[in-house]
Predict the structure.
Amino acid sequence: MGLNEDENAEAVANTGKGVAADPGLWGQPGHMSMVEAKTFASFRDEVQKRGGEFRETVYSFGEEEGETYALGRWLRARKFVLADVIKMVEEATECRKAAKEKNFYPNPVEVLGVEPAIFFAQYPQVYSGVAKNGCPVFISKPGLLNVDAVECITTLEGIIQFHWYVMMHDFAKRLREEKAKNPEGFTR
């Protein structure tokens, strides 16, 4: 059963333009509903007002990601519920505080206790090129995790610190490099 004109208008107002045709567009710039766009503007104002650590958390991968994508990433994670988004950023800011004090663990060997290649042999993770939007494609195979081997080579704390390194140094560096190589085609 199809939607009548009023129901269709309400659906577009709640889901954004083009989302029904391609759900991958949900919350993307140019495909936000009026409600989502207003929430986006409110969140942008909140980020600008608070600045400092709050803003650094939102732009954790650097300015290269761009405002629409950095803010959109947080908004989509909480389905554009502003209070939930703000709470999540506040919690993330607190969560990253200790790691930030250690510069997000710039030496992966030091935190893991082994070369990353040994860790990856036990927990397969790899970058495989770049997506159309310029974002590095990261593949992780947690189903192949060798728990016994990982417990022998590192600690839970080491794994957590290593993932801070991967996100804040490795992934962010790859984003910056891709933007430098392809400034026009980089949309992420």
In short: Residues 5-95 form one domain. The chain has two domains: 5-95, 108-181.
